[in-house]
Amino acid sequence: DLVFDDLTFTLATGEAEYLDSAKATIEGIKLIKAELPGVFTSLGVSNVSFGLSKAARPTLNSVFLYHCVQAGLDMAIINPANTPPYAEIPENERELAEDLIFNRRPDALQRVIEYFDGREATVSNTKIDPTEGMSIAERLHWRIVHRQPAQVGESMSVEADVDEIVQTSEISKTSEVSGTHATAIHVLNNVLLPAMKEVGEKFGAGELILPFVLQSAEVMKKAVAQLEQYLERAEGTSKGKLVLATVYGDVHDIGKNLVKTILSNNGFEVVDLGKQVPAETIIKVAIEENADAIGLSALLVNTSKQMPLIVNELNRRGQNIPVLLGGAAINRRFGLRVNQ
Q1: How many CA atoms lie within 13 A of 61 on its CB side?
Q2: pLDDT level of residue 258 (50, 70, 90 thresholds)
Q3: With contact defined as beta carbons under 8 Å apart, do 120 and 55 qualify?
Q4: Are 55 and 36 in contact (CB under 8 A)?
Q5: Going along 11-148, which residue ranges are E strands?
Q6: Is 144:196 a contact under the CB 8 Å cutoff?
Q7: What is the DSSP letter of 189?
Q8: Full-model pTM
Q9: Whether the Cβ atoms of residue 233 and residue 262 lie closer than 8 Å to each other
Q10: Which residue from 2, 28, 27, 23 is spatially nearest to 11, judged by alpha carbons?
Q11: What is the rounded distance in angstroms from the CA atom of residue 28 to the CA atom of residue 23?
Q12: How far apart are CA 197 and CA 210, in angstroms?
């Protein structure tokens, strides 16, 4: 129940007393997490760049946030609209910021000031299309990873990309079954899912903060909604029945809804219990529906802890129902640990 509010000082003064202050904050976070297991940490991140130019602050804030998260920071006070993702900052700018944060060279502050002098704060340039020269599949992938449902000021959108890739695909022209259905399945498996997998991996590595993950998920949602019109449901047959739910304490269901779309359009019956579902409800419905499997979704590390509770309770009751686990914080290692 304890949250320790870490502090940091601005690196803009250049005073010797504060040259190691950002580094000390990072080390302080590590010490709190090591010496007081189970407590949480918070930090007002942008104070580290107070006094620097508007162009320099977003880069320094983002790089500092990344290293604080790696050190164990749980909660950050920051404006995501003004904080570019760490992974999208040019390598030379990251190096400039890290030289200052870790006090790696005596002229680090001067180099940051000179580099960003006269520059505009980082914003999207609406006159330049960053997807120019990409294939449609590459463009779709890019839109999801970079949270761009449409090019500002243009008619091009993720929905238009979906229509174009389905209608012009060679799969659609040559498949003996319904071509557009085959293409839609291909786009799901080979374009959209890998894009969200990349987002999840960046989130897990601390390169993306949660608001950006949710923005990518919203773009994904638009793409899947457009793709659904090309998917054909097999009527009167069923490959099996699954109960899907977002676990208790978690309100995010975009990933779960995507899984539901894929399963239901591939011949499975899906009982969707929604989000914030208690463990007892999930188990009760799965038994009543004679489900072939249970699918559990959670976005956050904390809510993912519900999953082993459900698996353990199923085992305790002697219910041999396979459980599928999914979410941005879930990986294969976690799944194997739960099954033990």
Answers
A1: 28
A2: confident
A3: yes
A4: no
A5: 40-44, 75-77
A6: yes
A7: I
A8: 0.65
A9: no
A10: 23
A11: 8
A12: 15
